[in-house]
From TrEMBL:
Pathway: Steroid metabolism; cholesterol metabolism; Sphingolipid metabolism; Lipid metabolism. Residues 1-19 form the signal peptide. One of its GO terms (cellular component) is lysosomal membrane. Belongs to the glycosyl hydrolase 30 family. The gene is gba1. Residues 99-448 form the Glycosyl hydrolase family 30 TIM-barrel domain. One of its GO terms (molecular function) is galactosylceramidase activity. Keywords: Glycosidase, Hydrolase, Lipid metabolism, Signal, Sphingolipid metabolism. It catalyses: a beta-D-glucosyl-(1<->1')-N-acylsphing-4-enine + H2O = an N-acylsphing-4-enine + D-glucose; a beta-D-galactosyl-(1<->1')-N-acylsphing-4-enine + cholesterol = cholesteryl 3-beta-D-galactoside + an N-acylsphing-4-enine; beta-D-glucosyl-(1<->1)-N-octadecanoylsphing-4-enine + cholesterol = cholesteryl 3-beta-D-glucoside + N-octadecanoylsphing-4-enine; a beta-D-xylosyl-(1<->1')-N-acylsphing-4-enine + cholesterol = cholesteryl 3-beta-D-xyloside + an N-acylsphing-4-enine. InterPro entries: GH (IPR017853), GH30_C (IPR033452), Glyco_hydro_30 (IPR001139), Glyco_hydro_30_TIM-barrel (IPR033453). This is Glucosylceramidase.
């Protein structure tokens, strides 16, 4: 562990760091329950590269409300039981879904905030997300044209009646902000990034309400010229980004289709029912993708709250003409508390096991009763970890956060729909804050490699701990544990190939355990 002599003078508070990780967190407390870690162009706490421990050893990484951030320690498996009342048994013969990965969204707002920093601080921020020294995000969601986290309303084809999209043009936000940052992120990543695109609204002249916002859907019917133009709009977007050497792993059939169908949304939206989305995919979007050079692009339906499941999936995937073009189902986390995950996610998986489930958007600070940025909120870190574990334990294959970076107001956002982000930028001081939610994401994204497989886990008694277990492609094991209680919970992990792992989950903590099973 490396000590640092760096001191930060901020808001009249001097804070020094304790080296909890390999490069320690420079902690700052804003009075919201826990601390943020302060980073600048020359310093940021970093876990660094993780190395699998020797056989019989395990690594433990802890983040908690008390201020630890990915604090690493090493321990030894034992041949005999530790006598802990709670035994957690790994059941690798019970095999479930494979993991795709974790990530966030490169919105206009995220790009604006990242670019508001000096070049050195920009690189530092991107490294935190994408490099092997950082938390190794693999997925980036890219809005197609503007969304609420833009500073203006625009599409790429705002010329009325341009059904052939002859005037289709990427915006300055793409060419000068998002694309350069995506290229830099890819250069920092040890593996190819998986980009996926989501559109908020079609051009106003294609819509029934003649506006980008509010309640409105495409004019005409699936198979008609408006629907075919909207399908080609996606193809043109993929073509234009390819000119910058950026290829897309996937796309969604449109962000939150219920917003433009059921409510008078105050920002960009395009309404679909499951029936009209089904027919548009079957007649327009699916054939357009299939006949293009992007036929292998993964198409996800829904891209909306999971409470729409399994109904939405039943409508779209029961139609063979639409289902042949679909690969997965995208879900958002808003209103998750209203519907049990087994009723929505697991039931959908069992109905349609050939289609992956993937979490495409989540953010803290979206609720009107708890709006915007809360620097250092541990409750929000626990909300993230709880939802991710719940999703993973119900067949979800990955989890995508919303904005990669926001300012201290939770924007910019042209409609003032301010929310929180794992990284908050303060350009006036050329620094950024890593929120507790950043570390919540890290406990999953850093350790759950692509193709890791969820396996069974059982308990000797009822417990307040929440957990999910995985076997990685190198045959190592990962166990992630969330303790949302006020009490420390001692336990032992029984892995029949290695022995007994003695452990304890501190109060209000997230714990990742890693060991070699060979």
């Amino acid at each position: 562990m490396r000590e640092t002599a760096l001191f930060i003078l901020l808001a009249g508070i001097i804070t020094t760091a304790r080296a909890d990780s390999k490069d320690g967190c420079l902690a700052l407390n804003f009075g919201h329950g826990s601390v943020v870690c302060v980073c600048n162009a020359t310093y940021c706490d970093s876990l660094g590269r993780t190395v699998l421990p020797d056989a019989g050893q395990f690594l433990s990484y802890v983040s908690n409300k008390a201020g630890s951030r990915l604090m690493e320690s090493q321990g030894q498996f034992q041949k005999n039981s530790t006598g802990a009342a709670l035994r957690i048994t790994l059941n690798p013969s019970q095999k479930f879904q494979h993991i795709k990965g974790f990530g966030g969204a490169m919105t206009d707002a995220a790009a604006i905030n990242i670019l508001s920093l000096s070049s050195g601080a920009q690189d530092q921020l991107l490294r935190q997300y994408f490099s092997t020294d950082g938390i190794e995000y693999r997925f980036v969601r890219v809005p197609v044209a503007s969304c609420d986290f833009s500073t203006r309303l625009y599409t790429y084809a705002d010329t009325p009646e341009d059904y052939d999209l002859q005037n289709f043009t990427l915006a300055k936000e793409d060419v000068h902000m998002k694309i350069p940052l995506l290229q830099r992120a890819q250069a920092l990543s040890a593996q190819p990034l998986y980009l996926f695109a989501s559109a908020w609204s079609a051009p106003a002249w294609l819509k029934t309400n003649g506006a980008l916002i509010g309640k409105g859907s495409l004019k005409g019917k699936p198979g008609g010229k408006e629907h075919k133009t909207w399908a080609q709009y996606y193809i043109r977007f993929l073509e234009e980004y390819r000119k910058y050497n950026l290829s897309f792993w996937g796309l969604t059939s449109g962000n939150e289709p219920t917003a433009g169908e059921m409510t008078n949304y105050s920002f960009q939206a395009l309404g679909f029912t499951p029936e009209t989305q089904r027919d548009w995919i079957a007649l327009d979007l699916g054939p357009a993708l299939h006949s293009s050079s992007f036929s292998k692009t993964q198409l996800m339906i829904l891209d909306d709250n999971r409470l729409m499941l399994p109904h939405w999936a039943k409508v779209v995937l029961s139609d063979i003409k639409a289902a042949r073009y679909v690969h997965g189902i995208g879900v958002h986390w808003y209103f998750d508390r209203l519907v049990p995950p087994d009723v929505t996610l697991t039931s959908t998986h069992h109905l349609y096991p050939d289609y992956f489930l993937f979490a495409t958007e989540a953010c803290a600070g979206w609720s009107p009763v708890d709006r915007g940025v809360r620097l250092g909120s541990w409750d929000r870190a626990e909300d993230y970890a709880h939802d991710i574990i719940q999703d993973l334990n119900n067949y979800v294959t990955g989890w995508t956060d919303w904005n990669l970076a926001l300012n201290q107001d939770g924007g910019p956002n042209w409609v003032k729909n301010f929310v929180d982000s794992p990284i908050i930028v303060d350009p006036s001081k050329d620094i950024f804050y890593k929120q507790p939610t950043f570390y919540s994401m890290a406990h999953f994204s850093k350790f759950l490699w692509e193709e890791s497989q969820r396996v069974g886990v059982s308990f000797s008694q009822q417990t307040s701990l929440e957990m999910s277990a995985f076997i990685r492609p190198d045959a190592s094991a990962v166990l992630i544990i969330l303790n949302r209680s006020e009490e420390e919970v001692p336990f032992e992990v029984w892995d029949q190939t290695v022995g007994f792992l003695p452990g304890s989950a501190p109060p209000h903590s997230i714990l990742t355990l890693l060991w070699n099973r060979q």
